[in-house]
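Name: Ceramide kinase
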Amino acid sequence: MEEQPSLISSKLFLKNRQVEVALSRAVLTWKEIKESKNRIPLIPQADLSHAVPVSEIVAVHKPEDEDQPQMRRTQKKNKESSQFVPYAFTVSYVRRMKQHQWQCSDVTFLCDSRGLCEQWIQVTNEQLSLLTNRPKSLLVYINPCGGKQRGKRIYEQKVAPVFRQAGIFTDVIVTERANHARDHLRTEANLDKYDGVVCVGGDGMFSEILHGLVIRTQRDHDVDQNRPDAELVSCLSRIGIIPAGSTDCICFATVGTNDPVTSALHIIVGDNQPMDVCSVHHKDSFLRYSVSLLGYGFYGDLLADSEKKRWLGPARYDLSGFKTFFCHNFYEGTVCFLPAEDSVGHPRDKLQCKSGCRICQHKLESKEKHKEMPEEKEKAGKDSNKGWNVVRGEFISVNSACMSCSCPRCPKGLSPSAHLADGTTDLILIKKCSRMNFFRHLFRHTNKQDQFDHSFVEVHRVKKFHFQPKVDSPEDQSYHPERTACGPKFSNPKISNYSTAVSSWTCDGEILHHAAIQVSVQHQLIRLFARGIEEQQ
Ligand SMILES: CCCCCCCCCCCCC/C=C/[C@@H](O)[C@H](COP(=O)(O)O)NC(=O)CCCCC
Ligand SMILES: Nc1ncnc2c1ncn2[C@@H]1O[C@H](COP(=O)(O)OP(=O)(O)O)[C@@H](O)[C@H]1O
Ligand SMILES: [Ca+2]
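Structure predicted for Ceramide kinase:
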C-alpha cells in the first residue's frame, strides 16, 4: 500500500502501554513505543505494529463502558504512574479470523486531553463519511421459519447491534407468509428510501428478494420478462444475505462462510459483488430466476421429497438425499446448449472465481463494448442459430450451476470453477450409470478428486440451454402429478416406468412446475453486499 501523509498522529495509551497512533486517508496504524532503560530515546517496535484500512473501520465512538472495572483499573494504574489519562475513544474494525470469518474488534485508545480525544473522533468520522459506497439505510426482511427457525434471534442478537454501531438505519419486516417479501418489494416498498435490501434466511428467502427486485425493475423499465431474449435491466439496489436457512449456498459461495456477523460486516463496509442470474422460461412464458442450482433428476427429486419433511429442518436434505440416491432414477430427454466463448475458461480449468476475479472483470468490459455495438451487427448475431450443441439421452441428473454452489455440505461446490459474474453457467450432465458409479461421482464432491472426470459425466460452460423431456411433463400437459418417493405417479397407467418418465426442476430450492425449459444467463443482473472469496492470508 502506498504510504500517505498522516491526517492526525499522536502518542496515546493502549491499556497501559504507550503507542504511536496515526491516521491517513487509507489506513489507521498504531505501534507500541518501548522506552529504553535511561528513558531516552523512545524506540517504536515494528513487530508490535497494527494497521487497519480505513475502509474496514466500522465506527469510532466514545467507549460505552467508561465506568467498567477494566477501564477504571487502567486509568488508576496510569494515574499512579503519574500518567493519568481520563479520555478515551474506541475504534471498531473488521478483523479477519480463520476460514473467511470476520469479527468486529474494538481497540480503545486513551488520550490525556478531551480536545485530543474529540479531534481523533472527528477526523476519523470525516474519513468514514467519505466512503460513499457504504449503506446508510437498509430494508431488512426476516424469514422466521427458515432453517432452524432462528432468523429473528440471529438478526436481533448478532446483526442489529453491529448495524446500530455503524449508524445504519433499518426498517425491519418479519415475514408472515411465503412470498410476503417478494410481493412487498414488487409493489409497495419505497426503494428510494434505502441503500440496499437485506434478507435473513436461506436461498429460498434470497430468491424472494431476487424476484421482488428484478420483477419490479423490469416493470419500471417496461421490459417484457416473458420474452426469453429480452435485454433485462440490472437492479440498482444491492442485496445483503444474513444466513439463517438450511443450505445458505448463495451466502457461502459469495462470502466464503455462513456466519451472520461476517455478512453484516460485508454489508457495513459496502461491498459490491455483481452476480449473474439465469432466467427460466417455458415456451414464451417466464417461470423463475435462479442464481445457484437449477437441477433436474437427482436434485429435483431430492428437493421435491425434502419439501414434505420441512419439519426436520436442514436434516431433511440428508434423509431425502439417501432416499433419492437409492431410488436411482434416470430420465430421458434432450439438452441443447450454446457454449460460452473460450475467454471465460472451462469448468475443469481449476481457476477459481476469487475476489476481484479477472475473468468476471474481463467479461464486464466486453459487456460495455457489446452495448456500443451497432444494432444491425447485434441483430445478426442474435438471429443465427449457429453454435448450438445437442445431447440426447438418459440422464440421472441435469444440473446448471451459475456459481460454484459451494456450501458447508460441499465446500468446493457443485462446479468448483464456476464464476459469479462471467455471464455463463456450468451445465453438468450425469448420464445413466450404475448406482456405484453415481456414488463415486457424488463422493468426489467431498474430496480433492475431479467430480467431472468420469465417462458418464459431461460438463460445459454455456450462455443458454434448453431441456426437453422425452415424455411431456404432466404440467406441460396441464395436469398435476402426485409425486411418490421414487418419482411422479402417473394417472396414465401406460407410463409406469419411472426411469423414463419426467422429473421436476429445483430452482434455488424451489420446485418448477414445468420440465421443458429454456435458460438464459443474464450477465450481472444483480449486485450483492459481498466481495467473492478472498485469498487466505
Ligand atoms: C456421499 C456424499 C455425497 C455428498 C454430495 C454433496 C453434493 C451437494 C451439492 C450441494 C449443492 C447445493 C446447491 C444449493 C442449493 C440451494 O439453493 C438449495 C436451497 O437452499 P436453502 O433454501 O438454503 O435450503 N438447497 C438444495 O437444493 C439442497 C441440496 C442438498 C443436497 C444434498
Ligand atoms: N413467514 C413465512 N412463513 C412461511 N414460509 C415463509 C415465510 N417467509 C418466507 N417463507 C418461505 O420459506 C421458504 C424457505 O425459506 P428459506 O429462508 O430459504 O429457508 P430454508 O433454507 O430452510 O429452505 C421459502 O420458500 C420462503 O418463500
Ligand atoms: Ca456464472
